[in-house]
Amino acid sequence: MNARELSAAIEAQRPAIAEAVATRQYAEHPELRERYGPVGWQRTLEDASYNLAFLAQAIALENPALFVDYLGWLKVVLLRRRVRLQDVLDHFAYLQDGLRQSLPAPEAAAVACAYVAEGVRRLPDLPDDLPTLIEGNAPISLLAHRYLQALMRGERHVASRLVLDAVTQGTPVKDIYLGVFQPCQREIGRLWQTNQISVAQEHYCTAATQWVMSQLYPYIFSGEKGAGRLVATCIAAELHEIGVRMVADFFEMEGWDTFYLGANTPTDSVLGALVERRADVLGISATITYHVSEVQRLIQAVRAAPACRDVLVLVGGYPFNLAPDLWRRIGADGWAPDAQTAVERARELLAARRPA
User: Fold this and answer.
1) Which of these, 34, 59, 85, 191, has the minimum number of CB atoms within 10 Å of its CB?
2) CA 243, 288, 195: angle at the middle one, nearest 5?
């Protein structure tokens, strides 16, 4: 059984394994019902399912570091919600037993359990908390701090005025994107991860930032076009769209004609947009590791469509930053860690394709 077959087998058995893990953990540790309340079992079931999804993706990509990184994120989430580390370690022991009992071949189970065991081995040494992502006394950092505080108070109009005033006073829009929006979005994610804000607050802040970004469009869409044509999208099921929207805006500021599709876009719609817009480059974003296979499937669909055979594919997002060679494995033409680098990389790819 190869890596992709093993990944598919885990996905096929994911609901059954997750339920077996949650049921066994609560059967052998009845004190958990009192410790974590009436929703504890359901949360354990959901966590087991997510754990298996991330494991399956790491195996499919043959990259144990992706699973270890996920466990580092999960550790902070759970500890800040008063889940004991020993309960987490017990959970993964039951998870390995579930894999051994459910997978069709002992050698396949051994591979899957090795991924889990490596993550668990490193878990105690991974950080328990995360430092703030907005620091320093540079003017842009101070603006980011004031902007975030306005969002935390629910004052999106104040946040917008801070940004618009900075731009009218000469701060480049790109600096606002890279020095305010990007670190604030990351800080908002950290605040949720460390249980300092709710999901509702996180969603409000993200929606507010998207609204503030729209206030800057007169500065973004006013230039001449002709550098190239970009279609930018998230794959189906990916709802984290603000990063790829920032990328599309950077292309627009660099003279590209852009067509931004947003989150959760079906493959047929992406292919149709590539043809209709006569795109030179398709930019695809994925924030969550277990969506990388969806990115690969979209790339395969683009390659298989005769009308799209000349489209260059550029990928980005957290999993690709974590594993910089991942883009090659899934068949993309290039990868970029941030919006400005994405523009530069697309320019290089087009230049390499065009005759001298």
Assistant:
1) 34
2) 90
Helix ranges (H only) for 29-155 are 31-36, 40-60, 64-79, 85-102, 106-122, 139-152
How far, in Å, CA of 90 to CA of 97, rounded? Answer: 11
Which segments of 182-298 are extended strands (E)?
228-234, 256-262, 281-285
Token pair in block for residue 56:
């399956």
DSSP 325: T
Pairing of strands 334-335, 228-234: unpaired
By the 10 Å C-beta count (0-12 exposed, 13-18 middle, 19+ buried), 328 is classed as exposed
Per-residue pLDDT of 262-300, as tens digits, reads: 888 889 999 999 999 999 999 999 988 888 999 999 999
Least Cα distance to 17 among 111, 109, 123 occurs for: 109
Q: Cα–Cα distance between 178 and 31 in angstroms, integer?
A: 47
Spatial distance between the Cα atoms of 218 and 25, rounded to a whole number of angstroms: 56
Query: 312 has which bridge partners?
Result: 281
Q: 71, 119 in Cβ contact below 8 A?
A: yes
pTM: 0.90
Count other C-beta atoms under 10 Å from residue 104's C-beta. Answer: 12
**138-159 b/e (C-beta count within 10 Å ≥ 16 → b):** eebeebbbebbebbbeeebeeb
Q: Which token pair is 317? A: 């997002």
CA angle 333, 339, 341 (to 5 degrees): 60
Q: In what order do the strands lie in the sheet with 334-335?
A: 256-262, 228-234, 281-285, 312-316, 334-335
Across the chain, what does the average pLDDT equal? 93
Tens of pLDDT, residue by residue over 56-81, are 999 999 999 999 999 999 999 999 99
